[in-house]
Design a protein that fits this description.
By secondary structure, the protein is mainly alpha-helical. It has a single domain, classed as MFS general substrate transporter like domains (Growth Hormone, Chain: A), CATH 1.20.1250.20. It has 15 helices and no strands. Helix 8 (121-149) packs antiparallel against helix 9 (151-174), helix 9 (151-174) runs antiparallel to helix 10 and helix 9 (151-174) runs antiparallel to helix 14 (245-263). The longest helix is centred in the middle third of the chain and has 29 residues, at 121-149. It is globular and about 60 Å long.
Length: 277
C-alpha cells in the first residue's frame, strides 16, 4: 500500500504542476494576454512533458514472465472475459465512483470555487495549489494505513464516507467566503478520496492474474474514467446551466454508494496474504 501510493503522488503532482503554471501565468500576464496567446503556453509545456514521459516509459522493463506470456489467454479480451468477468465488473464499479469524485474535488473544484462560490480566479488557484500539494503528501500515509487496516477496509471507508459527506461538503463550499475555509473543506474531501487513490492501482492489479492484468486493469480504468471521471465537469456545468446544480451532488453521492457496494466484493486481508504466499 505504501509503495503503490506513489502512483497517485506522481498523478497529483502533475495536476499540481498544471495549477502552478496557471498561477504563474496569472501573475505575469493580463487577462487579455491570457486569452489572446497565453493559453497556448500550457500546451507547449504538456507536449514537452509527453516526450519525456515517452522516453521514460521506453526504459521500463515489463514485469510479466516468459511463462505468463506463453499462456494462450495472455493479453486477450477473450481470456479476460472467459475467466475474469466478475473481477472486471468489480473494478469497473468502484473505479467509476473513484474517478468521478477525484475529478470533482480536483480539476472541477477550481471552476466550482469561481462559478458557484464566487471566488476570484487567482484566489481559487492559490487555494487549489495548497490543497493539491497537501493531497499529494497524504498519499503515502494513507497507503501505510491500508497496510495496517487492510485494503478492503480502506475502500469501504472511502465508499461510506464519500456517500455520507459529498453533499454536505459541496453544499458548504457553495457558499464559502473564506479562502482558508475553502482550503479546509477541500482538504477534508481529499482525505476521503485518499482512501481510494492511495491504493487505486494496487486493488485493481490484485484482482487479475499476470497474463491479463494489464488488459483487465487498463480497460476497466479507461472505460470508467472516460465515462464518469472525464465527464464530471461536463455533467456538473450542464446541470448548473439547467438550474439543477444540486443534482450533481447527489449524482456523485449515488456513485459513491455504488463504489461502496462493489468494494464489499473485495477479498479480505487474510485472503490477500494467502494469495501472496
Amino acid at each position: 500500500g505504501f509503495f503503490a501510493s506513489f502512483q497517485y503522488v506522481t498523478l497529483i503532482g502533475g495536476q499540481l504542476l498544471a495549477v502552478l503554471v496557471v498561477v504563474i501565468m496569472q501573475q505575469l500576464l493580463t487577462d487579455e494576454e491570457l486569452r489572446a496567446w497565453g493559453w497556448r503556453i500550457p500546451f507547449v509545456v504538456g507536449a514537452i512533458a509527453a516526450l519525456i514521459s515517452l522516453m521514460l516509459r521506453r526504459s521500463l522493463h515489463e514485469t510479466s514472465s516468459a511463462e505468463t506470456r506463453k499462456d494462450k489467454d495472455a493479453g486477450t479480451i477473450k481470456g479476460l472475459f472467459r475467466h475474469h468477468t466478475a473481477a472486471f465488473i468489480t473494478v469497473l464499479g468502484y473505479t467509476a465512483g473513484g474517478s468521478l469524485i477525484f475529478y470533482t474535488f480536483t480539476t472541477y473544484m477550481q471552476k466550482y470555487l469561481v462559478n458557484t462560490a464566487g471566488m476570484p480566479a487567482k484566489t481559487a488557484s492559490f487555494v487549489m495549489t495548497g490543497a493539491l500539494f497537501l493531497y499529494m503528501v497524504m498519499q503515502p500515509f494513507f497507503g501505510m494505513l491500508s497496510d495496517r487496516i487492510g485494503r478492503r477496509n480502506s475502500m469501504l471507508l472511502f465508499g461510506a464516507l464519500g456517500t455520507l459527506f459529498t453533499v454536505p461538503l459541496l453544499m458548504a463550499l457553495k457558499t464559502v467566503s473564506s479562502p482558508f475555509m475553502a482550503f479546509v473543506l477541500i482538504t477534508l474531501a481529499l482525505c476521503i478520496v485518499s482512501f481510494y487513490t492511495s491504493i487505486s492501482g494496487l486493488v485493481k492489479a490484485e484482482m487479475f492474474p499476470p497474463q491479463v492484468r494489464a488488459l483487465g486493469v487498463g480497460l476497466a480504468y479507461a472505460v470508467a474514467n472516460a465515462a464518469f471521471g472525464g465527464s464530471a465537469e461536463y455533467v456538473a456545468l450542464g446541470l448548473k446551466t439547467m438550474g439543477m446544480e444540486n443534482t450533481f451532488y447527489w449524482y456523485v453521492t449515488a456513485m459513491m454508494a455504488i463504489a461502496f457496494l462493489f468494494s464489499l466484493r473485495l477479498p479480505k486481508q487474510a485472503e490477500y496474504l494467502h494469495h501472496d504466499d
